[in-house]
Amino acid sequence: MDDDPTTEILEATYRALCQHGYANLTVGDIAAEAERSKSLVHYYYGSKANLFSEFLRFLYNEYTTQLTSIEDEPPREQLFSILDIVLSDDETTPSQELRTAMLEVKVQAPYDDAIQARLRRFDDFLFERVQEIIIAGVDAGEFADDVNPTVAAEFFVTTITGAHTRRVAVGYPSERLYEPITRYVETHLLAAETTGDPR
Amino acid sequence: MDDDPTTEILEATYRALCQHGYANLTVGDIAAEAERSKSLVHYYYGSKANLFSEFLRFLYNEYTTQLTSIEDEPPREQLFSILDIVLSDDETTPSQELRTAMLEVKVQAPYDDAIQARLRRFDDFLFERVQEIIIAGVDAGEFADDVNPTVAAEFFVTTITGAHTRRVAVGYPSERLYEPITRYVETHLLAAETTGDPR
């Protein structure tokens, strides 16, 4: 745990959100999780809405750091690393509880412009990263040259979002949802000719 | 409007859900929308939880009727008709309000087995319909014979779910989300050789 109370509070927000969900989350829950007083939390972050907005910025920074950490890989590997990062279930990535809470947050978006603006940054970042990688892959001849990077990136982001939603809504195990995505990307979306499968 | 009060109440639930959202929906809202008394609603449907479960059954019946109404079309047309049905925004299909409310319902699924079971029926039905159509299309030579119907159907359902979630969460217009799906299905997922595009 960080010694900086502002970071500690954001890390406590993460744990409190996973535990209580978004709708029921209170500043008191966050303070309890941080082992700090409510008034200290308000001192640093003001209202619950402001704290939550800062929390989404904090999550966004973690997300973008993770998604740019693999920039030195070749395009095809980068794309599969991104799928691993956003779809995997190991302990370093968001738990089922965080996925559920984030879906709750998404439901608020039509009623809360600040939340929607924050969520768009996640969506846009993923879209732009994937688009860049596909452009680089087409240029390098790793992906078929008739792949349209914008259309393909839009498709990726949509499919990844759908995997997250289905995991919460219908509770299918990740293997059922994620393996077909990876398989389809590999064999149909990019450059079938480089997989050894003449398609 | 139907004269049968049980159907009238379910139709009123639809309108009340679009107007109030799921979290705030009360039996009083539904009764007001149906122009009936709360006690009459309880008389026919018991608790709010039971009414809502019956409402999801009613929506499911409408959904499956719509998705089977196109069974006489050839496989490729059926698949695009399904995309039209589940992704279009015209007045006969779910409004943005219903999509938002249904996303709220999905968030409840991890905490409510009855809701999750109902949601799985929608998900399973779409999966099975798409899988059947792809099998028929591969048999008929309309789709490439290396398309795996199970993997492709899983991919479809995930992508469609993602389009619904992104529309609520980031508020992009349908054209941005839906056109790339249709385009990718047409040119990459099924049988590129029948589209006139040599890919």
TrEMBL record, chains A, B:
<dbReference type="Pfam" id="PF00440">
    <property type="entry name" value="TetR_N"/>
</dbReference>
<dbReference type="InterPro" id="IPR050109">
    <property type="entry name" value="HTH-type_TetR-like_transc_reg"/>
</dbReference>
<keyword id="KW-0238">DNA-binding</keyword>
<dbReference type="GO" id="GO:0000976">
    <property type="term" value="F:transcription cis-regulatory region binding"/>
</dbReference>
<dbReference type="InterPro" id="IPR001647">
    <property type="entry name" value="HTH_TetR"/>
</dbReference>
<feature type="DNA-binding region" description="H-T-H motif">
    <location>
        <begin position="26"/>
        <end position="45"/>
    </location>
</feature>
<dbReference type="InterPro" id="IPR036271">
    <property type="entry name" value="Tet_transcr_reg_TetR-rel_C_sf"/>
</dbReference>
<dbReference type="InterPro" id="IPR009057">
    <property type="entry name" value="Homeodomain-like_sf"/>
</dbReference>
<dbReference type="InterPro" id="IPR039538">
    <property type="entry name" value="BetI_C"/>
</dbReference>
<keyword id="KW-0805">Transcription regulation</keyword>
<dbReference type="Pfam" id="PF13977">
    <property type="entry name" value="TetR_C_6"/>
</dbReference>
<feature type="domain" description="HTH tetR-type">
    <location>
        <begin position="3"/>
        <end position="63"/>
    </location>
</feature>
<keyword id="KW-0678">Repressor</keyword>
<protein>
    <submittedName>
        <fullName>Transcriptional regulator, TetR family</fullName>
    </submittedName>
</protein>
<dbReference type="GO" id="GO:0003700">
    <property type="term" value="F:DNA-binding transcription factor activity"/>
</dbReference>
<keyword id="KW-0804">Transcription</keyword>
